[in-house]
Amino acid sequence: MIGNHHFGNVGDVWKHLLTCAILDEERPDRFWETHAGAARYAMDEADERQFGAGRYLARSRDVPALDSATYTTLFSEANDSRTDPETYLGSPALAMGVLGDAADYYFFDVDPGCLDSIREEASRRDCSSAVNAVPADGLSGVAAGIAADGDGTDVVHVDPFETFAATDPAGLTPIELFADVAARGDVALLWYGFESAEAIERRWEHVREEVREQLDDASSAWCGELALEAPANHGLSTDPGLVGSHLLCAGLSPETEQRCRELGDAIAAAYDHGDFPGDQRGGLSFTVRTP
Fold first, then answer.
1. What residue ranges do the domains of the chain occupy?
2. Model-level pTM?
3. Sheet holding 187-194, edge to edge
4. CATH class of 10-289
5. Maximum separation of any 2 CA atoms in the chain, in Å
6. Cα dihedral angle (229, 238, 198, 5), rounded to 10 degrees?
7. Is residue 107 within a helix (H) or strand (E), and if so which, with residue range?
8. N or C terminus of the chain with fewer C-beta within 10 Å?
9. CA distance 160 to 180
């Protein structure tokens, strides 16, 4: 399997739902992604994917805000069935699906299979000339790229393997890159997940402290949290993949932020009174956090 082995879990769906909405509202000239992964994945019966992508696509039909969402449209179009999807779209395919050839793309990854997948997707969507699949670490690559780019607007998605560590050879951390992008006046996105209920508050306190320290105006940042309502169930007889995740954003317009809030309420409603595979309860809660 190339790319993200945890594709299609509920945190991945949350990230992609909001990213598609943000791209659709903001219409940037350039989209950058630090760790892009593959453009497409083959769905399977893993619990985390059935609770995440599988349940989302089936239940979104009953929630108008989700049924009409850009993400849902693209995900549905890639499959013959909304109740038994065979294909999961990664962020490169979704971004190209939203913006087409109206934007330039910079997808960084060190996995040759992921980069080949991105190039194939660009050819499929007739936007190869706009797509750059870069075989390099995304943190330093994006930092150098946005420093050199010219006029226009950017959306930068920082999606690292290690949220808080300086894994970049130059010592740059994901949060520092997020802050640098925000300071330029561009849209910055930082996604990270947590695998235990205890980690939710601990990680948020860390992120809030970093954002307050590095952003001149921390109030410009907005964070959408999606978490399991009963995380104690995690790991008993099924695996939802993540207890929850945050998408931290800066530079969003008021209209985009409102759209993200509406989608947060909508996805929580779609999972209300739900069950995990294995007959466990599995509702979701949506919370807005601000630094």
1. 10-289
2. 0.92
3. 131-134, 104-108, 30-33, 154-158, 187-194, 244-250, 221-228, 284-289
4. alpha beta
5. 53
6. -110
7. strand 104-108
8. N
9. 16
